Amino acid sequence: MRHPIFVSLCVMGAFALSACGQSSENDVKRAFQDVNVVDETNLNDVMLSAADPNEAVSYFQRTLGENPDRIDLMRGLGTSLVRARRNTEAVAVWSRAAEHEEATNEDRVELADALIRNNEWARADQVLDSIPPTYETFKRYRLEAMIADSKKEWNKSDSFYEIAVGLTTQPAGVMNNWGYSKLSRGDYPGAERLFSDAIRQDPALFTAKNNLVMARAAQGNYAMPVLPVSQTERAQLLYTLGLSAIKQGDTSIGKGLLQDAIDTHPQHFEDAVRSLRALEANVSG
After folding, report:
1. Is the pTM of this model over 0.85?
2. Which of 213, 180, 210 lies closest to 194, judged by CA?
3. Mean pLDDT throughout 46-65?
4. How far is Cα 210 from Cα 226, in angstroms, rounded to an integer?
5. Would you indicate the residue range of the signal peptide (predicted)?
């Protein structure tokens, strides 16, 4: 009489253990999924910040292929393609991201950036025009300024650059761009001031140093400014001054600056040597 009851209890216990086992297995799976999400997020960040750009592209292409609707992976791929200077591909990916149902204004700004890098200025202008004016970020205004430059809308350009400078704690790069804008339109004193400001913000920004000596040379000032430079950088700046002097017809000054560049450089300065030889050959000829 007791056997059926015992069997029933055993069967019920087996079902209970089975249910517990299944529940535990599901919990473990969920736990591993959570861990994988965290690990993947960390890996995405590593790929974006530290990996070789082309390695990052391969990673995001593979991961996006497995999860084709995830906008975070589209963003990662688009950013990696830009870093790898594969601009045509970057435009395609950011276009797809900008059309995603979870797309933000930031995605559209990134699309505009990729378009500018790919020399598609008109389309970049259209993309930025589609973004509400209330969306105000440093990158948005920096791109707006660059587009205004391309259209020679100088008042707009100055306004956008000024806003962009106020929206970042690291304005050296945009000051350098603004200075180059002034240089291209012939405002040499304004350009010189902005390049000097950029260097004060970032003493390591060699592009601004090179642009500064060009702005000074355009005003007939061939003296080296007081700058924090290495010996190699000083030689390169003297070379830029020399070429600028020659371009403006001050040949003898340019020749002396080229020789100074050769003498200053800690190694053989092939470009300066070649330029000096060409100059001497033209003069003697």
Report:
1. no
2. 180
3. 88
4. 13
5. 1-19
